[in-house]
Amino acid sequence: MIKNERQLSSGGVIYRTGEKDVEVALISVKGGAVWRLPKGLVEEGENIARTAHREVKEETGLDGKIIEKIDHIEYFYSHKEADLTHRIFKIVYFFLMEYTGGDVSEHDKEVDDCRWFPIVEAIEKIEYKDEREILKKAKEMIESKD
Q1: How big is the CA angle at 42 (ends 7 and 60), to the nearest 5 degrees?
Q2: Which pLDDT score, from 0 to 100, does residue 146 have?
Q3: Distant-in-sequence, close-in-space partners of 84: CB < 8 Å, separation ≥ 6
Q4: What is this structure's pTM?
Q5: Burial 17-49 (b: 16+ CB within 10 A, else e)
Q6: pLDDT digits over 40-56, tens only?
Q7: Where are the domains of the chain?
Q8: For 8-74+93-145, CATH number?
């Protein structure tokens, strides 16, 4: 049996200006094998901006000020539970966030690692194509701000 579901998530691209380049924070999961952007499910009573702020803080240990919405991505995934297959349509909104404090060593336990990367390196390192496009858009937004 197949059960169709929807999920709404939100996350962020948190950045800072390093000595040579703009840097962004990526998290690693799956034993450190996959680098991606921090994101998570919108909780009841929360708006997408609040979720982005909370999830970035939890998963990276960093605090940031939301500048603006970057874009959203959509995808399907599925998982099996006994005789039931859950087919999930997921929408994830991403926000550009300027770093204001915190330390990557303070990330939560569901994340294997969190590190700052020069944004060009982060674009190459990130695992998923749709998140890579979000990072490219974030880079353009940051460059147009200066």
Answers
A1: 115
A2: 63
A3: 1, 2, 3
A4: 0.93
A5: eeeeebbbbbbbeeeeeebbbbbbebeeeeebb
A6: 999 999 999 999 999 99
A7: 8-74+93-145
A8: 3.90.79.10
